[in-house]
Amino acid sequence: MPNKRKKHDALPEEFSSFEAATEFWDKHDTTDFPDAFSEVEVNVDLKGRRMEIDIDEDVADLLRKESSRTRTACRPPAKSAVRPIYIQPKLGKT
């Protein structure tokens, strides 16, 4: 039975520009070049994502209190706890 695999352009060793790579991969797929890629084993240790933001001390105090209250109730703090629409009225600010 004849090989029905389509003939493809050769996979370049490197591309002259990001645009050239984009144009090439828009027309091709890694499965077009099975001999050019090999399986690898990867071990990952995914951590939670943390972000740092600046907030007023009175807002931080409110968040700590809300966090303690909700942890006591065995549930995570509500995402709305950090929204200004929720925080500002509690602080008496508009």
Structural commentary:
With 94 residues, the protein is mainly α. It has a domain at 57-91. Helix content is 36%, strand content 0%. It has helices spanning 18-27, 57-72, 84-91. The longest helix has 16 residues, at 57-72. It starts with 17 loop residues before the first helix and ends with a helix. The relative contact order is 0.08.
Write the layout of secondary structure elements.
Elements: H1 18-27, H2 57-72, H3 84-91
Helix pairs in contact: 2-3
Indicate the overall shape.
elongated
Mean pLDDT: 75
Structural class: mainly alpha
Q: How many whole angstroms does the radius of gyration measure?
A: 27 Å
Low-confidence stretches: none
- Say what oligomer this is: single chain
Characterize the largest beta sheet: strand count, sense, and whether it forms a barrel.
Answer: none
Residues in helix, %:
25-40%
Tell me the number of strands: 0
Task: Please give the count of helices.
Answer: 3
Query: What order do the helices and strands follow?
Result: HHH
| Ends apart, CA distance between termini | 77 Å
Strand content: under 5%
Write a brief caption for the model.
By secondary structure, the protein is an all-alpha fold. The protein has helices spanning 18-27, 57-72, 84-91.
